[in-house]
Amino acid sequence: MDNYYLNEAVYLLDEFMAKTESPHYAGRFEYGDRGRHGWSPYKSNAEMYREMAAHIARNAPSGDNQEAWHYK
């Protein structure tokens, strides 16, 4: 339950995004039981940044120089 009662809207967005095509949204929604507004599944920002960098690396154009932006 979100402090601002946004949880229902997020469930609806999750359902909508799962049905997208061309392009399909391949992301994920994670829910924290009784998590407050701004809840995050990550223990730290660094954990989130590493996951974001890995996603970008997997989807980068071939031959792209990733050293300029890669989070280590």
Describe how the helices and strands are arranged.
Elements: H1 7-18, H2 45-59
Summarize this structure as a short list of keywords or feature phrases:
72 residues, mainly alpha, 2 domains, 2 helices
Summarize the structure in short.
This protein is an all-alpha fold and 72 residues long. The chain has helices spanning 7-18, 45-59.
Tell me what you see in this structure.
- The protein has helices at residues 7-18, 45-59.
- It is mostly helical and 72 residues long.
- It is flat.
- The protein contains two helices and no strands.
- The N and C termini lie far apart (34 Å).
- The protein folds into two domains: 1-41, no CATH class; 42-72.
- The model has no long low-confidence stretch (mean pLDDT 85).
Tell me the quaternary state: single chain
Total beta strand runs: 0
Helix content: 25-40%
Contiguous uncertain segments of 5+ residues: none
- Helix/strand-derived category reads mainly alpha
Q: Please state the CA-atom Rg, rounded to the nearest Å.
A: 16 Å
Beta-strand share of residues: under 5%
Strand and helix order: HH
Envelope shape: flat
Number of helices: 2
Taking all residues together, what is the mean pLDDT? Answer: 85
* Main pleated sheet: none
End-to-end gap: 34 Å
